[in-house]
Amino acid sequence: MNSVIYYHPEAYTTSGPKLMGRNAAGESFLKGFLKYSKATEFWVQVQKNEHAQHFVSSVKAMGRTELVKSVDLNNLAALSQSGLVYYPGPGIAEHVNHRALVGSSVNALKTSNPHAAWSLCGITHTTSSAGAMDALAELITAPVQPWDAVICTSTAVKDNVQRLLQAQVNYLQDRLGISKLVLPMLPVIPLGIHTQDFEFTDTQKVKARQELGVDNNTLVVLYVGRLSFHAKAHPLAMYQALEKAAAAVADSGQKIVLVECGWHANDFIENAYKDAARQACPNVQVITLDGRLASARETAWAGADVFCSLSDNIQETFGIVPIEAMASGLPVVVSDWDGYKDTVRDGIDGFRIATCMPQAGLATDLALRHALEVDTYDMYCGHTCSMVSVDIEATAKAFVQLFESADLRRSMGQAGQARAKQLYDWSVVIGQYEALWQSQTKLRLAAQTGNEHKALAHPWPARIDPFYSFESYPTHTLKPDSVLMMVDASVQESMSRVQHYQDLAMVNFAKLVLPTHAEIAQVLGVAAKGQTTAQSLLQDIAPARQAFVFRSLAWLLKLGILKLV
Q1: How many CB atoms are located within 10 Å of the residue 121 CB?
Q2: From CA 543, how far away is CA 353, in angstroms rounded?
Q3: In what order do the strands lie in the sheet with 149-151?
Q4: Considering the entire predicted model, what is its pTM?
Q5: What is the CA radius of gyration of the chain?
Q6: Residue 112: its pLDDT value, please?
Q7: Distance, CA of 189 to CA of 428 (rounded, Å)
């Protein structure tokens, strides 16, 4: 099937000034989609022409030769030809409003249900920001349909989304007594990776360990990701557990090195990490690599023995790095948190460490401070994660088990690597996306001919027809039974005046809403016969254009070509 990718370069690149997980996920998705999609042609929805050109370059770079078709805001109706738009975020409410307007406009697609012109599919990234939460809450009142979808990247985030939606429903039931509810699909589909990017030869592994300066009696524990204690993973639990584990294996002569492959947002955060490591794990050497560099990431993945990520932050929804670690053949030690619950099998691919958070009802003050913008989003996340704990003793025990047994490291690494290839490679995940899109299309097509839909006069109430909302402004309203007549004595004279007026910049600027010269001549040909109703003036106009030309009669009144009787 062919689907439309809503494309803005910033959503699909990691080369911008502010690298976030969603950028990496977007870039990885696009590469996977262009590599594994079964599309026979590619469609892209853009805001600017240069974005379409950028997309075409991406298609060619992947060796695809299929035709690329571009849609922008001036021809949204063309989306019905493909039938589905993938939007790289949860905020599809605005786009279903666009669909409602297009389907109900004077250029409407001739279906019994304008909402069935095409489907929309969004995806969750973080769901804790104000923007993301508002976008999800808006799904309750926006004209989403059962053939729309918002992909949840983990079962934990689906539960989070459902709780937010239910809270909004409860509010509207109490406030307005709503009884009908229409929701999009909420399928759980994981993010994918290119597993072949994490396969390293023995030569690469030896070189990586040389670059790290570690010998065969050193065990390298790796963390990959933003080095942000307030918005990613607080490192103290990892530091303390590593110190305990290092002491437990000290008699064996093994040395423990922690590699943190990431980046600090500023000097304050960098110094905070250094201070915490000196205090919490003085017997563990800490090496910091710049995770924004591909060469540094390769050194980190190829040189490590064990991977660790003790995420404790609500901004996380899936967590791609444990999958990358598994693809690299590393056993993993992760927190039992968010998407890690789905991806890592405790005792098989590694260890999932128990986490604890206070019961519901004890953080309404944090929500209030965030809502009132007393706290920034970063502080909101930081305050919340300060009350989420990871079992340090269990983490230390997991490290010791892995440090003491090369066989366990090997077996868990092999199990994780097989799982990554089987479930999380884009060659598998893109198939799940396209299967979802096919099911959405099937539902949508069935709804196009159904009779159960009740068309709304104002499908997007906050963006209603200005001729309706400002109806009290004019003296008269042009209606089908309004009687009009031609001002000039002949059609030729009127057409000559029209041409002169259209040469004026103050008239021609509105050419988008003006009829063709042929249509003007047809209208005036009828008007020349004497005064008649506005509807009668359209008798020679093609049916598909009659509504447009009827509206344009007001423009002919404006120019003094016609007048009201």
Answers
A1: 25
A2: 68
A3: 68-71, 42-45, 4-6, 84-86, 119-123, 149-151
A4: 0.89
A5: 31
A6: 64
A7: 11
- In our burial notation (b when 16+ CB lie closer than 10 A, e otherwise), range 455-466 reads eeeebbeeeeee
Neighbours of 91 (CB within 10 A): 18
Beta bridge partners of 68: 42
Each residue's pLDDT tens digit, 347-377: 999 999 999 999 999 999 999 999 999 999 9
Contact predicate 297/321, CB 8 Å: no
Find the mean pLDDT for residues 297-314.
Answer: 97
CA 132 to CA 395: how far, in whole Å? 32
CA atoms within 13 A on the CB side of 490: 3
pLDDT, tens only, 94-140: 999 999 888 776 444 455 688 899 999 999 989 999 999 999 999 99
Computed over every residue of the chain, the mean pLDDT equals 93
Q: How far is CA 169 from CA 96, 152, 172, 175, 267, in A?
A: 19, 19, 5, 10, 44
- Partnered with residue 285 across adjacent β-strands are 257
C-alpha closest to that of 273 among 223, 227, 321: 227
The DSSP secondary-structure symbol of 282 reads: T
- The answer to whether residues 331 and 416 touch, using CB atoms and an 8 Å cutoff, is yes
Q: How far apart are CA 127 and CA 415, in angstroms?
A: 31
Q: What percent of the chain clears pLDDT 90, i.e. is strictly above it?
A: 85
| pLDDT for the residue 394 | 98
From CA 46, how far away is CA 42, in angstroms rounded? 13
Which is it for strands 483-486 and 562-564: parallel, antiparallel or unpaired? antiparallel
CA distance 157 to 338: 7
Structure tokens at 192: 């994918």
Q: CA 17 to CA 22: how far, in whole Å?
A: 14
Q: How far is CA 235 from CA 84, 264, 296, 402, in A?
A: 42, 13, 20, 20
> In degrees rounded to 5, what are phi and psi of residue 528?
-65, -20
Instruction: Kindly provide the b/e burial profile for residues 217-229, where b requires at least 16 CB atoms within 10 angstroms of the residue's own CB.
Output: ebbbbbbbbbbbb
- With a CB cutoff of 8 Å and minimum separation 6, the contacts of 66 are 39, 40, 41, 42, 59
| Cα angle value 240/245/248 (rounded, 5°) | 130
> Could you read off the pLDDT of 231-255 as tens digits, one per residue?
999 999 999 999 999 999 999 999 9
Q: Are 561 and 523 in contact (CB under 8 A)?
A: no
Tokens of 292: 């924004």
Structure tokens that stand for 438 in this block: 């096919």
The answer to whether 388 and 363 have CB atoms below 8 angstroms apart is no
Structure tokens at 297: 């990431």
Give the model confidence (pLDDT) of 7-50 as tens digits.
Answer: 888 788 765 545 567 788 889 999 999 999 999 999 999 998 89
* Mean pLDDT calculated for residue range 259-283: 97
> What sign for the dihedral angle of Cα 524, 526, 529, 534?
negative
In the prediction, which pLDDT does 459 show?
76
